[in-house]
Specification:
This protein is α+β, with helices and mostly antiparallel strands. It folds into two domains: 3-200 and 347-354, Ribosomal Protein S5, domain 2 (2-Layer Sandwich); 205-344, Alpha-Beta Plaits, CATH 3.30.70. It contains eleven helices and 14 strands. It has helices spanning 41-50, 87-101, 123-138, 145-154, 172-181, 219-227, 229-236, 239-255, 259-270, 290-297, 325-334; strands spanning 3-5, 26-39, 56-72, 79-80, 107-112, 158-159, 165-167, 185-189, 193-198, 205-210, 306-311, 318-322, 339-344, 351-354. The strands form three sheets. Strands 2, 3, 4, 5, 8, 9 and 14 form a seven-stranded mixed beta sheet that branches. Strands 11-12-10-13 form a four-stranded antiparallel beta sheet. A three-stranded antiparallel beta sheet has the order 1-7-6, with no helix packed on it. The protein is globular and about 60 Å long.
Length: 355
Amino acid sequence: MYTFRLGEVFWLPQKAGKTKQQFSHLKISVPSRIGTFPVRFENFIKGMQSRKYRVGYLAFAIDLRTDIYIKPNDSPETFVINEHQKKNIALHATRIMQKALKLKNGFDIYIFQPYPSRVGLSTSSTIQAAIILGINKLYGEPLSIKDIIKLAVLNYGEETSTPGKLVHIPILGGVLIASLYGGGLFAVGNETTLLARTDLDDIYSIIIGIPPHLPYKGETDLDEIINNAQIRINLGRYSDKKEYVFLNKIIPALKKNKPRPVGEEIWNYMAGKYGSIKPYYKSKNPSVKMGYLIDKLLELRGNPDILTGFVSSAGPGLVYVTKKIRTCITHFKQMGISNIIWTKCINKGVEYTVY
C-alpha cells in the first residue's frame, strides 16, 4: 500500500488570486454522499498510486451534513478543538491550504459530524472537502473551482494505522461535486468532472442499514482487495460493458432528469449482471455474510416505490432510496440489522455562515 506523510502535498495550483482574510471565522456545512456503480475498478486501483484517474461512478447526495467551524489563529499550528477522531484528516487539509495560499497562520477547527464513520458515508472526505472549501472562502476564494477540485483530489489522504501516515484513495471528487454543484444523484468521471446530475424528488428518503460488523478496518483490508487477483479479475471482467451502460444509458437518463432507469442499472449491478460484487464485500465476522445481506437487499427489487438499493461502494452500509420508509426499515430488521439511519436525498450543496 502506498502511503505518504500527513501534510505532504503532491500538486499545487501555479497561481492563486489575491489572498486576504474576509471574515473573522465561518461555519461550513457540506452534504455527505454515498457512491455506487464504480466503472473501471482496475483503474481505481492504479489511480491510488499514479493519481491519474480513468474511472467513473454514481453518487447520491444525502442530508447527513458535516458542520465545521474554522477560525484563523495567531499560531502556525492548527488545533482541532474537540479532538475529533479524524483529527489528522483535518490537520492534513489545513496544511494543504496553508501551502496552496502561502499562509503563515494556522486555524482553530471544530468538527460536528453526527453520523458513524467507516460505513461508507464519506466521513473523511467531507471533512477534507469542508476545510479546503472553508479556508478558500475565508480568504476571498482565491482558488477557482477547477483548482479547488484538483488540489483536494490529488492531495487527498485517508488515515492508516501508522501514526502520521495517510493513504491516497480516489474518492473525494464526489463530495466536492455534491457540495459545489448540488444535485441528489450525479455521475462523476475521472474523479474531478461532473458528467451529469439530476435533482431527486423530496418524496424519496434514504434508509441506511449498518451491519453488525465492520468489514473495512483500514489499509490492511485495502491491501487484501488490491492484491487479491480473484477480486480484481471479477470486478474488471465486465468493465467494457459497465462503461457502455454508464455512458450510453445512465448519463443520458440523468441529463433527461429520469432517475428510474438509473435505479434499474444499480439494481442490475447489485444482482451481478456486471460481475459479482460479493467477494469485494467481505466480513471480518464469520457469522455474518455480506453475500447473504446483498441477496436479502435484492428481495425488495420490483417494488415500484423503491427507486433502488445497493451497498455503498466504500462499504458496508446498505442503502435503499425509497418512498416506503417503513417497508425498508422493517426489511432491514428482518435481516438482523438494528442500526438504521433514516435521512433524505438532498439537492442543495455547500452552505456557509460567516462571522
